[in-house]
User: Fold these one by one.
Assistant:
Number 1:
Amino acid sequence: MIEIREVYKSFDGNEVLRGVNLSIRKGEVVALIGGSGEGKSVLLKHIAGLMRPDRGRVVVDGKDLEGLKGRALIELRSRLGFLFQGGALFDSLTVFENVAFPLKEKTRLSDDVIRERVLKELENVGLSGAEYKYPSQISGGMVKRAALARALVSEPEIMLFDEPTTGLDPVIGLSILQLIDTLHRRLSFTGVIVTHEIPRVFDIVDRVAMLRSGVVFAEGLPEDFVDSHDPVVREFMEGTTCTTIKGRVGKAAGA
Amino acid sequence: MKFIRKLGAWTLLYTDRMGVMGVFLGKAFFYAVIPPLKMLRVLKQIRFIGFQSMVVILLTGCFSGMVLGFQGFYSLSRFGSDAFLGPMVGLALIKELGPVITALMVTGRAGSAITAEIGIMRISEQIDALELMGLNPYRYLVVPNLVAAVISLPLLSAVFDVVGIYGGYLTGGKLLGVGAGVYFGEMANYVEMADVLEGLYKSLSFGIIIAWVCCYKGFYTSIFTGFGAEGVSKATTQAVVMSSVLVLIWDYFMTSLLFG
């Protein structure tokens, strides 16, 4: 479904991606992990066609994004959903209007059908009752949920999530991950999740890819990462799961 | 050697940016003439750029006319020509001051807000979200402002002219004694349709300049002026300065080349 071949990208001489290779099969959900500034979000924007590689190819469903322009690009994008880190809701529109926006602008559905679909989608993400609030009037978790509803209302085949839990407390973060999992079971989209939510994200993904120094440093099943003996992967895993480890140590000490 | 290298780099950078700006305007025109036009957004922007600028235009128009009335009367009476106050005020307002001051006022009031709004949409990834929905950001953000400015500027300029002419009569006529018949009669004798058209063409082109520069500066906020609130603030300042300067430069060329 998604093929990334030898992708290079630099900004002002700073090379962020240095030959990334990654394949994502149809219906699969892949977690893209790695330290801050390793280029995870940049790679995600390449898959969405928001950025073009300096070298290399990004092929989505057999179509090379490099040569894709105009109507063909619009067509591909209409099969794609993107959850932005900050939600990217239109702040002059209510939650309802935000979710209805892609349907109103891109389809010829009647107002009644749109209303029904939007309310259903908002119910799915647990936002019933917040339809007529503006993005500035709701919490960060609700913004993410509303953005998720907007991304999913067009029933995309590919969903890209850019740090869906960043800035949220652990309970709401977990609820967002569970929501993604539930929606994936319902819609069977192909997904890429850029996240630091380790190891919790491992419960909802099929595979994990770790970016380091501009390349995919490690790739495999979630279990492979948990059991990895590679010192770099271990360091990253232990660094991100230190809270859990401390918790265990604390419990053991208490016992 | 270092100076030449710097000059070369500067030239390349600004040539590139001018190219980007030119392409931006080209795309805006293209999407403005190729349907669909987002009529609701156009009407909303006409309300914002046009209707909501009325108070500012009424005030500036009135006081500009009143000042012209005073200054004109005292200058003309030195030569015993105070009967020509009406034509002087009329021509100055219709040909020059009306379009230019209206453009500067709209730049300050609406242009800056347009840049800030589009700039915030850029840094908060709302423009990326539009693109990812398969929607064209030019149609939603640029074209409505361009069409609205082209419609609003001539109308506002006309309001400015009318209010200014009455302002001039208020000081020159009511306070300093030029008769209404002389003031308006001489104005009717000397102001021609060509003068009104000159003002109209100018305000039309100023509308394009304001919408072009202000939308462009907002659209490329994170690329040319940096990220975050500082980037938006820089973009807004640059948009107001650049629009104002371009309006005055373009005014000179229009006056000298087309109407000289």
Number 2:
Amino acid sequence: MEKITEQKWQLSKDWFKAIKLPWEFFLILITALVFTLCSFASPYFLDVWNLSDATFNFVEKAIVALPLAMLIICRDIDLSIASIIALSSVAMGFAAQYGLGLELIVIIGISVGVLCGLFNGWVVTHFDIPAIVVTIGTMSLFRGISYILLGDQVLKDYPDGFEYFGQGYIYWVFSFEFALFLLAAVFFYALLHKTNFGRRCYAIGNNPTAAFYSGINVKRHRLLLFVIVGALAGVAAVLLTSRLGSTRPTIALGWELSIITMVVLGGVNIMGGAGSIPGVFIAVFLMGIVTFGLGLLNVPGIVMSIIIGGMLISVIATPVLIKKFSHRGS
Amino acid sequence: MKKLFTSREALLCLLILAMLLSVGSVAKDFLSLSNLLSAYNDTSILIILALGQMLVIITRCIDLSVAANLALTGMVVAMLNSSYPDFPVPLLMLFGMLLGLTMGMINGLLVWKLEIPAIVVTLGTMSIYRGIIFLLSEGAWVNVHEMSEAFMHIPRSLHLGVALLSWLSIMVVGIFYYFCRYSRSGREIYAAGNSPTAAFYTGIDVGRSQFIAFSISGLLAGLCGYLWVSRYAVAYVDVAAGFELQVISACVIGGISIMGGRGTVTGCVLGAVFIGVINNSLPVIGVSPFWQMAISGAVIVLAVIASSKAEKKSGRIILKSAAIVPSR
């Protein structure tokens, strides 16, 4: 079944290629459409400050979506990302309460992310267990540890200057968060599309056995990707904690699903082997614009989730449907 | 004989017994029949949902939308009951099951006919179903005083000293035991998950088996929608939020292989009971409920590590790397 699905999936992608329409083009088209509709629908939409504010709502998720895309291309998945964010935020909260300096707090936050990623990667590769099961477990484990450490308390004694990461602007309307996201996007674009490391991701995702026999250290590669995802979850935790100014164990609850939605919407094949960073980059903005535009129109958040869910299914179903009907015609 | 003692089911049984006895030695009342019955009653919904999820996982899919499905049917049933209190509750239950079945069939059709990966489909329908609850209820709660007496009473009514809710879960376990072992569809589900290619060549429609699994999972989620709302006497948008992960955890602990094709009804029930025992015993031995999540997480990780070793011994792996191939 897996093989058949993969083939069909590939075929639907080929259909786009046949008429010279890459997935990214399709996404840009939808994004532009939504953007135009929103700017007509609300007079407040086309305001640089409003747009800049809107980026805060998705940039932290987007920063994790980039490495997660590479992990999913490798046929793995990490459902524990939101829990890693929570645990690393709790660690930073305690570090701040202990009176540590700014740099140390950030280093602790990111290292906790790295350690969590390392643990995920170690269990997955050392015991040959599907990543989805392991990370369902660590998802409860990491968030559970945050609950044990923090209970129903709040940590909010962050030192002065810590708020810059999540609230500061580097120039005019460009926030530190947004700049960091752009930087990360460029970095991951180069990593996935311009380096051997990136090509190996596709090789492993398409056929791990073949990749193994062509001399790729598959286990080490996957382990490294888990660590990178963990590290970036740590970065996201720094940004989010700094923006909110406080830590509760429920921080970033349910984010794993919206981050995976971003990745899948970006054209990354959940079965592995296909996908691109530009696709994820555009999908991030698509989701951001839809959320922001509907928010301006007073649509409640939960209704937005219907639209995002519908978008996820229909964007993936459309090429399949078109292919089915075009086959019937010919 | 050796197999009997090293099997996942036997280990889980021993573990559960050990937990019960050690908690019982601290708190004497814990092992009383009435407390055990109420603990089982507490776990009934999890057992029913885990069995539905088991079928889906056996066909190499996953159903993330069960909790949203449960919440939506629960809300619809509760709203119907508060508007038409005289409408007979058994019919209402049937209606809830049909509604859940429809939602499960939507998942199944998308997986079968459009061949979209199940995790994507159910990720989408999960937020759609959850969102529809808000559209229907406009964010309002249905509270206990708006529900009719029969609506509240039926799952609690005692038969032979055991609540109907527990009887229902026992019935579902019985049906599943028969379905998985002796029915044609049940065997096809195992075959489709074990080796889709081989199943295809023996004439089994793999997609159809997945569709059936999703439909059953939806039907049971619909049944649980009513049971949940009646048990907790309230319906709102976030009912059972995140419960899908507990359901999947129960399956994983129970030894249902996420790679498909492997798993027994007994294991699945024991997995759910295991989680139920943890949930019920922590408050008794005075451990803060905040530990619950971390413990079940640690148990899942340990359980999959343990079963990965067991599976490695049982199967002859010619190529060492072949074990990496199916990741999901």
Number 3:
Amino acid sequence: MADSTHPANDLDIVGVTKRFGGHAAVDDVTFGVAPGEFFSILGPSGCGKTTLMRMIAGFEHPTSGDIRIRGQSMIGVPANRRPVNMVFQSLALFPMMSVGENVAYGLVCRGMPREDAQARAERMLERVGLKGFGGRRVTALSGGQRQRVAIARCLVLEPTLVLLDEPLGALDLKLREHMKIELKQLQSTFNTTFVYITHDQSEALVMSDRIAVMNQGQFEQVGSPRELYHSPATPFVASFVGETNRLQGEIVSSSDGTVALQLPSGTVTRGTGRAPQKAAVAFVRPESIALAPSQPALRDLPNRFEGRVSAVLFDGANSSLLIDTLGFDQPVRAVLPQAGPLAGIEVGAPIHVGWAADAMKVFSA
Amino acid sequence: MMTRQASRLTLFLLLAPAILWLGLLIVLPHVEILVLSFSERVAPRVYAFGLGNYLEFFTEPLYWRTFARTAFMSILVTALTLVLAFPIALYIARVAQGRVKAILLLLCLLPFWVSELVRTLGWMMLLRETGVVSYALRAVGLADQPVELLYNDGAVILGLVYGGLLFMIVPLANALESLEPAVVEAGFDLGGSRWTVLRRIVIPHAMPGIVAGSIIVFMLTVGNFATPVLLGGKNGLWFTEQIYAQFITRFNWPQGAAFGMLLLLLSSAIVWLGLRLTGQSLGSTLKQA
């Protein structure tokens, strides 16, 4: 957040608030997006991310605060005069126009002669891998092709900023995985600044240079995908980004960043973090949990517990175990390596779990 | 085998009322009128096959001029109705929400709870020399003597547009309602002005509704009788008056039948032309209506 309102930024959001009645949908949000950056806003539905995006596009007006694009305030500038183009959730292609006309639309709006606009549109379609599709009906395209038309329609205008509002939501899983990579590649070849909105943490983690995690109208944390994943700043970020085990208890002792957390059952676990209050929550990633058939193998770990497999969740490389562990009221989730000796483990088998202190992040509850 | 026969019988029985309706009330009378229109009176109570009734139409200027006038005025009325109805439909479909929307549609429907005749008489009360508008104009000093606003083309057009408005608004509002809000926003987002968005996105999307509403209003207008007669008086000169005169005043049924067929031909031709010009098919248009 240190680089916000930097003059070299493509987008600066300065203390923007949007109230609907008494409810603040966006509450004093400040951030900056550098040129060429792929910036994501990640949050659950209703967190205000769509309102924020609609304010950047010019469809909503902030109650207070400023929106600057390349240093230029956008307050009072209508949507059709902003150097910002949006890829809508529904894509919102113009069904009454051909693919070529869809892409040429913005150029014609700028007063470019129709033939020149068509030629530019044709070249843009070629660049997104839709050569010769100009004459087709929009309805005759597949989901992925429609996606590319929606992006080409924006990129042909060479905007300062492209806004994307969960454009992958309507696609099936396989295509979505494919489009994630394609979007990222498109963004780097065109070197355009992307602001991407999603509730899907995997989309945000895979594509973004930086992510802002948004909750109840405010930014919880802004950082690179790795930062968010490995050092979440708030309990919300820890639980929203990636899979995690959540423990609740009281801090019994703390020294030098290492804290001992006592669970309601009396079991004591050791983690890292600063928690000024007694009541605390802690998070452990399933992949940080070591599994072993016997206690001695986990000898070096401060947290060692004994349990029994309650469920095997087989999902190829993402397989995991749910383990009923002594002293824990929820089963502990741990990644099950499919290449290891435990690959064939069955429900009911006894097992030992353990994790390092710095794998467990403790926050004030 | 039995079940197939039974289902066929069921289908037939279900369709029977519709077939009877179409056959007895629409097809049969039109066949009768067609046959009648080709019969010429050669002597009292003696008729022979011939094209005389149609020739009469082309040789008597009053007839074909009234015919052409009816066609032109109807197209004008349809166009005016469209221009007036479009913003109303746009508001109902895209701005009004919930109760307001229902109330607005009800307001459009309300005049139709009164018979067409009474509605037209209402206009007469407003527009006649001793009527409300004339009185108001004198009261505010815009006129120094009573103004006759009835019995001219303006009054006829006013009455016909008023009668057609609802039938234009409903299909238009239906068509506009199905336009996704994001598509309109995308139109603005990519740099379109209000006019560009209207011309390139909203109107093309509403085209089936525009054509459906126009066909309905045009047909209602061409075939209207009471409004041109009452508001236009002697200057009304609507083709339906000629048909009425032949059938009822002159008791010349074959001539009236020929005029009836010509009017049917006229409205079919103009509807066909309208569909061709706008590139719409009858099927998609009917769906919208």
